[in-house]
């Protein structure tokens, strides 16, 4: 199978991602945001290596693809070095045939506005068989073999298999509550068929209409439908090759063309026939107009609706709910991003907390559930717990950092208290400051003795006024009154009055 990893802009991860702020952004591409002091996309690439996919493709916007490729150079080189060490160690072993070379990682720049448009117009020609679509922001300990086996054992009429997981995070940020959705699916408890995704309703639409309107045609075909608000789309889709034929913009060739022995006509005739599925006896596919100029989640929602909207049945989108025995977190918002870091801190703290390149005062304490990057300086009587400190950070005397994330090159001055805070790169926190549940943009300077709670600290940028024309400009070199407009000499009596501004 081919794997395609989509690297989004990270609108919900602002101000640490530079989404929507290309002209002045101080952030970084979403795929390179650190989780446990490693770019989040590295965890997805390691997961793909376990699955042994035929090919791994990283899809990002044309502006970000070079930055992502540059940021992964150390990971790619380390990946090759590890394979070299293992191959030498197993050279004389009888199990050497089990060792496989790392699959190549290709970087694809996209100019499309949405992921669905990118998939339809830029990736369909690259797909040669069954494939999987992945996000760049998930962290899990569930092995990929579980997902692959579920896909292999899918029902014969499934054109794709979507994976969902139960949201176990407590949403502390009220801005994230509207991101939930009402997921409609068929449980199929009394049959051998797998659950089928039927429809998805955003919470905002349900709140506006004050009711959940489920279509009657859906209930006719699936009377055992279930509605859930706890399921979250993982954006992991295992797809058959038939999906490419369905979404292809190319018109099918004429099957009634006469066969005069010409190989081109034979090839054209065979091109219109869908490749038969391994589990499917009937390979006929009815092509419906599918609008792919939207996100992948909405595109697969339309594919799910396609199965029951028509009088005749269409191919369904299967659904599998990930078991709760394993952990699965999508770091697609700031709250989940913090929880993903804490999940890894509990696992990797014992091996990464004591770094030889970190300068730590003897009176300072670094908890077992904390990670400190290389090149950091921690002065006396500072305490770090359940936090990830990036490389080259400076932490002053008598500081307390708990449940926080510090990006590289952050400077924390003396007697600072941070609780559940994310600090961007090159930011400075002044002396005796106390921050709780705050987000600090990169290169932002927090003044000394600041006490803040639940704030997002970002810089203010002012764009120049493009409507300012030369005809309205005042010539500073001229001394004659005639060179100035008449409005320049008019005085407003209220302009110099007291408007209570200074009093406020």
What does this structure look like?
Helices cover 23% and strands 22% of the residues. It is α/β, with parallel strands linked by helices and 504 residues long. The strands form five sheets. Strands 3-2-1-4-10-6-11-8-7-9 form a ten-stranded mixed β-sheet. Strands 13-16-19-22-25-28 form a six-stranded parallel β-sheet, with no helix packed on it. A six-stranded parallel β-sheet has the order 14-17-20-23-26-29, with no helix packed on it. The chain is globular. The model is unreliable at 171-178, 254-261, 263-276 and 468-504 (pLDDT under 50). One of its GO terms (biological process) is cytoplasmic translational initiation. GO terms for molecular function: guanyl-nucleotide exchange factor activity; translation initiation factor activity. Residues 463-504 are annotated as: Disordered.
* Continuous helix count: 11
When the domains are counted, the total is: 2
Specify the helix fraction band: 10-25%
| Number of separate strands | 30
Q: Report the span from N to C terminus.
A: 65 Å
The biggest sheet, with number of strands, parallel, antiparallel or mixed sense and barrel status, is: 10 strands, mixed
Query: For the record, what is the CATH homologous superfamily label of the largest domain?
Result: Spore Coat Polysaccharide Biosynthesis Protein SpsA, Chain A
- C-alpha Rg, in Å? 28 Å
Q: Class of the largest domain in CATH?
A: Alpha Beta
Write down the CATH topology of the largest domain. Spore Coat Polysaccharide Biosynthesis Protein SpsA, Chain A
Question: In percent terms, what proportion of residues is strand?
Answer: 15-25%
Strand order of the largest sheet: 3-2-1-4-10-6-11-8-7-9
> What's the rounded overall pLDDT mean?
79
Organism: Torulaspora delbrueckii
Subcellular location: Cytoplasm, Cytosol
InterPro entries: eIF2B_gamma, LbH_EIF2B3/5, Nucleotide-diphossugar_trans
Keywords: Cytoplasm, Initiation factor, Protein biosynthesis
